[in-house]
Specification:
Distance between the termini: 49 Å
Structural class: alpha/beta
CATH topology of the largest domain: Thiol Ester Dehydrase, Chain A
Radius of gyration: 24 Å
Organism: Streptomyces katsurahamanus
CATH superfamily of the largest domain: Hotdog Thioesterase
Order of helices and strands: EEHEHEHEEHEEEEH
Domain A-factor biosynthesis hotdog: 100-232
Pfam families: AfsA
CATH architecture of the largest domain: Roll
Number of helices: 5
Protein name: A-factor biosynthesis hotdog domain-containing protein
Helix content: 25-40%
Oligomer: single chain
């Protein structure tokens, strides 16, 4: 990651963000609470501090279950009408067939929405249980692999929803030809948007369509990373046949190398005392 950091302490007065407990380090900033911290404040009668209404914006790492937990805690204190939690993005998370993921927590984007000619955008939705989050968290920012995986899910979703013929949706196999990422600043557990611009696409054969896309992950009006990708969507039957042939060839080459290694005499090194 670059040494440049994004400004995270200049939230507007009264702006409150809710993040998952996994981002407790980031919650040291004023106006940011983890789910557990906010629940405890509500139970202790310390939230909300003012008599007027309060609006809470969701950051990353918060699930639908977490939001319901906070709402239930507010209701028990008679505060439900005073606190508005905007969780609309959580209810637009892309489905399994769109993001090509088996588990919901591993889906990182909302359903892509048009944003101009050949341009699309989606909300970044990082679940605390996401596979990329399972074994790496350093400091206050989110790891760069979340950016690349969100971009991968985004261009697949855009291709299937907006460019491939209906009969190819769910029956295509995506192969990445090139994937270049430039990180410009840290990505923090705040709201972010994944954008995709389809620069070119063509179908040289009925069994495949090639794409060239530029993507970015934007936060607070700044681009945290830019990605350029070229990929091909193959008919599944065609791609599986190609993959099977490649696997067989690799196995044969590996077996030949293993045989040659086993036949070679062992080298014994003699060290002078």
């Amino acid at each position: 990651m670059p040494h440049e950091t994004a400004q995270v302490t200049g939230s507007k007065p009264g702006a409150l963000f809710l993040v998952g407990d996994v981002f407790a380090e980031f919650a040291h900033h004023e106006g940011v609470f983890t789910v557990s911290q906010l629940a405890r404040l509500i139970k202790d009668g310390a939230f909300p501090e003012e008599a007027g209404g309060v609006r809470v914006t969701l950051g990353q790492g918060v699930s639908v279950f977490d939001v319901q937990f906070i709402r239930d805690t507010l209701t028990r204190r008679g505060l439900a009408e005073l606190v508005v939690i905007d969780d609309r993005a959580l209810h637009t998370r892309a489905g399994r067939e769109i993001a090509h993921k088996h588990r919901l927590e591993n889906v990182l984007i909302s359903q892509p929405r048009p944003a101009g000619a050949d341009r699309f955008e989606a909300d970044l939705l990082v679940d605390a249980g996401n596979e990329v989050m399972s074994d790496h968290l350093t400091g206050q920012h989110m790891q760069g692999m979340l950016t690349t995986e969100a971009a991968r899910q985004m261009f697949i979703a855009v291709a299937e929803q907006h460019y491939l013929p209906s009969e190819a949706v769910g029956g295509s196999y995506f192969v990445i030809d090139s994937f270049a990422t430039r990180y410009r600043s840290f990505l923090f557990p705040l709201p972010a948007v994944v954008r995709c611009h389809v620069l070119a696409h063509r179908s040289p054969h009925r069994t495949r369509t090639t794409f060239h896309c530029a993507l970015s992950v934007d936060q607070g009006g700044s681009e945290t990373a830019g990605i350029e990708v070229r990929f091909t969507a193959f008919d599944t039957q065609v791609s599986h046949a190609k993959e099977a042939r490649a696997a067989q060839r690799s196995l044969q080459e590996g077996a030949a190398l293993a045989t040659a290694t086993a036949a070679a005499p062992l080298r014994t090194e003699v060290h002078a005392s």
